[in-house]
Design brief:
Chain lengths: 348, 341
């Protein structure tokens, strides 16, 4: 293991601060028009919004090892991963605001972000990104490249068939895939212990004779180390790995979630554990001074503000565009001319 | 494809499975990014001969047996296609769709649209469909309507070897997800004898049949029979019998459900005035209702009489007399036509 460089740490810190500030700012924007009475379809950001404050270490620690040609699939709580993977922040924000210049021209929304330039996609159904990640790994293997694929999922997804089937598929074909479980203790309102008997979701890997490691605390550097090994293993064609990272859900499952099911002390504990401040301390111990840390924070905040302002200035889509983009090459395949053969024995 | 200048008569006949495999093999030779995944597609050659002989030429890496794990391998096909490869993934029986429908309905079909056209999913999902051999409720469905219903997938159904080859070439070359539904009874498998019709002359070279081009399998003036798959042949049998009674039936083979060639259907109905839609899928909320509604939308005044012939809304029963009762045969089609006259 080479170990993390200060430059790498600063880059992760920037991603994490960007992601945290992004979620906090989206929360503010989202609630506009939804107060005092919460109406999910009102305001400048319509629909559901699942924010990932408290998950940042899992995004930054893994994606620090990835290149643009590596593929990432994320679940419904995707922003921190997208930011760490280098997704175009302005166009992603425009998509969340449902604007014409968004990544999906306003057709996808925050659970369905696609940025093919950096091979990022996310989707809204639990564990469904695992098979396509395995497929991206399969493509890398067939093309004999050293690209890898990473599938993110929550701890609530470890009992889904799509995850378990993908583990087997990736294992049997030795695919360069890393499965990253973000354990935030809660599947909406269901605490982990009520729905699964394993404390460590990475143990699922054992049934497929794959390595499974758990990072017990949301420490970006510990995630970085675990991912260095797993991504390296995948790049070297030594097969898949499962990593579980303990993260914390600092906000509700979705904006508007009253969290009445959640003990106050659990919420307080989540607030107290802050992977970003932890990494700031790590930076200091690597000799980075407070001014530099503050500058990193400020530039990250500026980037977020810029993206949000830009997105809000973007036009709403033309309603007629709802009928476009069904197919890549409309209206149908590669040819529109019927061949003209004379077949024996008939007029077919 | 350019018009053939020389009118050479094509004599070579193939079964539908050989024609389908020939197209796959040609595409695999031409493009290293094409590969086939499915259960028992390698050594076995596909339970319904869909990959017969391909392993010998292409090996296990490109003719891939996969775990019995449809969610994993269909989803992996989506992922590989999004990387730009051209996977063909097979559902051994279309009836198995249920265990993997999320990958099909929520990703394969929707990712292009949800990405605003930034992502393409150039894959083919092949699926064996259909009954008539007493395989009961979980192995006999066609589910044409189920696959054609959700937007985002092109759905094609060949009824002859000639069509099977041209449609397969087009399906693999298409940049969008294509569901290629082949009827088991038409493949020409030794243990599942085909009717006479699907084995046809097939050109040696590759050619494409455009999607959304229905084919007049028989011309006639009195009634339009619109159908697909196995029932093209049953409709042709009915038409022969009807001709003896002086009723001249036109048989329109849809060949693709998405896109649907409404023009050809409407043109035919405007000529004959009578429409009989024949389907091996369930009657309610399916292909028959859709075709009738499409004609009504376009040309309501042309319709003098309409009949639907489809599976009644029951699961497909096992026992021979029970299955024969529910799967439409030539006599059912003939009777429906007579009711329009």
């Amino acid at each position: 293991m080479v170990g993390v460089s200060t430059t790498q740490m600063k880059s992760m810190f920037e991603d994490m601060v960007t992601a945290r500030h992004y979620e906090e700012r989206l929360q503010e924007e989202y609630l506009e028009g939804k107060q005092p009475a919460f109406d999910i379809s009102a305001g400048p950001i319509p629909g559901e919004l699942h924010l990932a404050a408290g998950h940042e270490a899992a995004g930054a620690g893994v994606c620090a090892h990835l290149r643009d040609d590596d593929t990432v699939t994320a679940p419904h709580r995707p922003h921190h991963v997208a930011i760490a993977k280098g997704v175009d922040l302005k166009r992603m924000t425009a998509e969340i605001f449902g604007r014409e210049t968004g990544l999906g021209k306003g057709k996808g929304g925050h659970m369905h972000l696609f940025d093919p330039d950096v091979n990022f996609a996310c989707s809204g159904i639990i564990a469904e990104g695992c098979p396509p990640a395995a497929g991206a790994g399969l493509a890398a293997k067939k093309r004999n490249t050293d690209s890898v694929a990473v599938a993110y999922l929550g701890e609530g997804a470890i009992d889904q068939g799509a995850f378990l089937e993908s583990l087997n598929f990736a294992a049997v074909h030795d695919l360069p895939v890393v499965f990253v479980i973000e354990d935030n203790d809660w599947a909406i309102s269901m605490p982990k212990e009520r729905v699964t008997d394993v404390e460590n979701g990475a143990q699922r890997a054992a049934g497929f004779e794959l390595p499974g490691v758990r990072v017990d605390h949301d420490d970006a550097l510990a995630v970085y180390d675990a991912a260095e090994e797993a991504v390296g293993r995948a790049r070297d064609r030594n097969g898949p790995t499962v990593i579980e990272v303990q993260v914390h859900r600092r906000m509700g499952h979705f904006m508007g979630d009253p969290e009445s099911y959640r003990p106050e002390e659990d919420q307080a504990a989540a607030q107290a554990r802050d992977s970003i401040e932890r990494l700031a301390d790590d930076l200091r111990s690597h000799g980075v001074d407070d001014d530099t840390i503050e500058e990193l924070r400020e530039s990250a905040h500026e980037r977020v503000e810029e993206a949000i302002e830009w997105a809000k200035d973007q036009p709403q889509p033309d309603p007629e565009d709802a009928h476009e983009d069904m197919f890549v090459n409309p209206p149908s395949g590669v040819t529109d001319t019927e061949p003209d053969y004379e077949l024996a024995g008939g007029d077919d | 494809m350019a018009q053939q200048e020389k009118r050479e008569v094509i004599e070579r006949e193939l079964t539908m499975s050989r024609a389908m495999v020939e197209a796959i093999a040609t595409e695999m030779r031409d493009n290293e990014e094409v590969f086939y995944m499915g259960e028992d597609v390698a050594d076995y050659g596909g339970i319904f001969d869909s990959t017969e002989g391909l392993l010998d030429e292409f090996g296990y890496d490109r003719i891939m047996d996969v775990p019995i794990s449809e969610t994993a391998y269909l989803g992996a096909a989506v992922g590989a296609a999004q990387e730009g490869m051209r996977p063909i993934a097979e559902l051994m029986f279309v009836d198995f769709f249920g265990v993997a429908m999320d990958q099909i309905y929520n990703q394969m079909a929707k990712n292009t649209y949800m990405s605003g056209g930034n992502v393409s999913v150039p894959m083919v999902l092949t699926a064996a469909v259909g009954g008539t051999y007493n395989d009961a409720a979980q192995h006999s469905q066609t589910l044409y309507g189920t696959f054609a219903h959700v937007p985002g997938m092109k759905v094609v159904v060949p009824s002859t070897a000639y069509d099977a080859k041209g449609l397969m070439h087009n399906a693999i070359r298409d940049d969008d997800p294509v569901v290629y539904m082949f009827h088991k009874r038409l493949m020409g498998i030794g243990w599942l004898p085909a009717p006479k019709g699907p084995k046809t002359p097939v050109p040696e070279e590759d050619y494409t049949i455009p999607f959304g081009s229905a084919d007049l399998k028989r011309e006639g003036d009195d009634v339009t029979i619109v159908t697909l798959g196995l029932h093209v042949h049953r409709a042709l049998d009915a038409a022969e019998s009807l001709a003896d009674d002086g009723v001249d039936a036109e048989v329109v083979d849809l060949r693709s459900l998405v896109p649907l060639d409404t023009d050809t259907i409407v043109e035919s109905v405007e000529k004959t005035g009578n429409l009989v839609v024949v389907d091996e899928d369930y009657r309610s909320y399916g292909v028959t209702g859709e075709i009738v509604a499409s004609v009504a939308d376009e040309s309501l005044g042309a319709l003098d009489a309409v009949e639907r012939v489809a599976l009644p809304d029951v699961p497909i029963p096992y026992s021979r007399p029970l299955e024969q009762e529910v799967v439409p045969d030539a006599e059912d089609i003939e009777a429906a036509v007579q009711r329009t006259q």
